[in-house]
């Protein structure tokens, strides 16, 4: 009997047991894979390639992938020990495309804060070692040009429901000309598509159009739509991730030119002077991060849209948005805390602070004004109340019987004694609740000077370099201070509340680049305040009659310290008010005979050889000082290379002058001493050369040994150079590094400019980018610039020669008049009337000197009302010179008056005999092609401008004689910088077409230039006559065969021909044979025509049959060719 089959056990597919079993199986599989990997590591030969071809292919693939990411190494200007400046991200797009919304969402993603107003640069912390600065680009051409020159990354927003607009392509062309930064596209307004098929079709078409302008595979993001006024968080997070991993390649122009994007601007002009005259030039302060290259202290800067200026003062301020990695307590953390996600947007009205051009305001919303009072009599011991300074201030304000605004409204002030009090105007009821920040003790600007006091945030290294003497410290601790009035000589006055609580160890540089002042002045905030107990005389004139020796930097009393202090005194003792608090009595010691003898040899009439010999002897007599020559030379001669050990004699004379005067015994003559020192220098030079050669060989041995690994070699060389620079400047103080390097990239700086037009402050708009670009030596000069020029293919009109164009090149935007030309086969630059179609030409204009290979872009008009494409042409700088030789063809026309065989007299070609004399020997040509030459200019009252010419054949009076010459054309020296930041009243030169249109002037018509049919009368020439004597001498073949026309028919012509019967039969037979032959040929031709028609019909049918197959093959071929790579 068969038993029923037992029920099979079914394993659980869900539940705790199933999850536990799945985890066990997963661990087993991982262990198995790990054991296999260990086996591979234990025995390499067992798992090697079995095929040589396979190994070769794998090696080639690995090498290709490795070298595909290589690029030409470019030096990074950011110091390894400094923080890099924030990455500038420009959000560009047409109006109403979602730029502000995108910036708000990105800021909320990075900082968890909401922005109410997007204006100016907005800096956020995106990581431990990266900061981002967002800037919304306005839709005017100047702002788009400025951000195309400075942006590191461009977020190009496109309305997906509308498609690409003119502003998008205009900005792409601007970016391509000025270096082409990284560009990422963002599609918005995609929620307006109802069908997914239409959405996918639009995405595909826009993506391919975007790729054709950027590169194949350029990233294009899609923002599906708004949810409660914001984009989805997942899409914003995805965009932020791509921004975080973006790498930026330094561009040539930016890596060689420093620039500052203005975070905020201050008008620090004396208010009294502004009240007297509103149109005076202003003194402004520009704040921002230094980008690009190091800023030299004596260089000029160009404020884009305003003009060129010299920097009056450069100050390095504390970073308002510091890196979290700089904090020691956050060095080991991988993620940012909410406190480290900082936001710095001084012009965007973020949070409760607003930086205005006059003050700093705190904005408190109406629903946030409530503050609960704490009852001091409450007996709750478990609650500990800690009051900060802010809470204490609010509680003190709550206890006032009358609010502050009522007190201010009821208060009055008397300007003079006995005058009528002035009552302020009552504020409008609809104004927001704002209170100006005012501190009783100015704690925001004046921090404790000593690092050991509580609350100091400065580093120890900086405190060692910038110590303030005890006397000034006592003044701060015990004295009562008042703020000095602001003057033009103040460098870093603490007169503004919006200096971001600047640390007192900031560095200021005064009067940079002026001959009457030192190149750099280093100071602290110690001399910016005065005790109130001083007299008016001391406040006005100062008390610097006697110098205080204890105020000198560095209290070293050694000989070397004294020597160094003597050399450094003129560069340090300059005071803020421009006076020199030196020893005034020493200046008037001219009556002392010893003083005059000590400096006699310093003048032209003195004995220089004796002074030099005495200095050399002093060096020999003082070995200690002589041993310090090299060290002192390193400190003093900071501009020259001291590697060869060649010390300057004048340096030694200055430093050892006292020792030379004290030493009266001379054991060697001056010539012997000079010869001995020369031998020592040569020995030192030979030792240095030997050491240098050994180091060079050692560097070669340390290079990579891989053949052809040029990339690794260059990278190693750059890293070695950076390490060498770091080692070289390791022992230098900040003052010395600034003299050599300037202000380093990444520093937050404050730059003061004077002489700025008042319109800059009057029309200041925080939404417009303000760029302060540094100029290299010589770039502030004007000259002739020749560029390779091409009209843009999308610009409708052909550009005419000598029409004014607005050109953007480098930091500048200006209007000029280009002169078009093209090179011919004879190395001649020929002038052109119009730009050629689809072809480059040369354009020469008068403008600022630019480096070669600098890109330019030209506009005929930068107005926002233009509906068509505004980019007129693009180009690149080829050559710079004081002048260029450009010629144009000049055709002089004359008519013959007297003709004598091969000689003719020509008139109406020149206006004077002097002018005609300059063209003697010039070539002539007639319309019929007869060549000639100008022989002589005729003189006389009736022959003014008449010339005598000789031709290769006799000409006629009806012939027109031409003289083709070349005349030099010089470009017009017209340069009109575009002042877009000074209001909308920039006057530009109009084109001829605009002038005719505005004044309704018709186009002049030249009758000779009209196209009309030409009716020429056919000329009848007489027959050539040969003399009879000549005809007899000619051979028969050359004799003329001229027969007279027969008036009557000849006898042969009149005689009738009668055929014989046999001839008639033969003639009839031939006619019949020809008829049969013609009939056969006709039938054959008809058959051939029918075959051609049938063959054509069959070919068309065959072509129609394979047309569809051919189209499919071509479509597949093109799809494969345009398929983007996955790399």
Automatic annotation (TrEMBL):
Instruction: Give the start-end ranges of region Disordered.
Output: 1-46, 412-675, 1082-1127
Give the family this protein belongs to, as stated in its UniProt record: Belongs to the TRAFAC class translation factor GTPase superfamily. Bms1-like GTPase family. BMS1 subfamily.
InterPro entries reported for this sequence: AARP2CN, Bms1/Tsr1, Bms1_N, BMS1_TSR1_C, G_Bms1/Tsr1_dom, P-loop_NTPase
Q: Give the UniProt record's GO annotations in the biological process aspect.
A: endonucleolytic cleavage of tricistronic rRNA transcript (SSU-rRNA, 5.8S rRNA, LSU-rRNA); maturation of SSU-rRNA from tricistronic rRNA transcript (SSU-rRNA, 5.8S rRNA, LSU-rRNA)
- GO terms, molecular function: ATP binding; GTP binding; GTPase activity; U3 snoRNA binding
Asked whether the UniProt record includes Transferase among its keywords, one would answer: no
Biased-composition ranges, Low complexity, are 1115-1127
> What is catalysed by this protein?
GTP + H2O = GDP + phosphate + H(+)
Bias (Acidic residues) occurs at 440-477, 489-506, 550-560, 574-584, 608-668
Localisation per UniProt entry: Nucleus, Nucleolus
Lineage, broadest ranks: Eukaryota, Sar, Rhizaria, Endomyxa, Phytomyxea
Listed Basic and acidic residues bias regions: 513-528, 1083-1111
Chain ranges of the Bms1-type G domain: 85-249
Domain of life assignment: Eukaryota
Q: Which PROSITE patterns match?
A: G_BMS1
SMART domains given for it? AARP2CN, DUF663
Q: Where is the composition biased (Basic residues)?
A: 8-21
Q: Name one Pfam family in it.
A: RIBIOP_C
- Name the GO cellular-component terms: 90S preribosome; nucleoplasm; small-subunit processome
Q: Spell out the protein name for this chain.
A: Bms1-type G domain-containing protein
What keywords sit in the KW lines?
A: ATP-binding, GTP-binding, Hydrolase, Mitochondrion, Nucleotide-binding, Nucleus, Phosphoprotein, Ribosome biogenesis
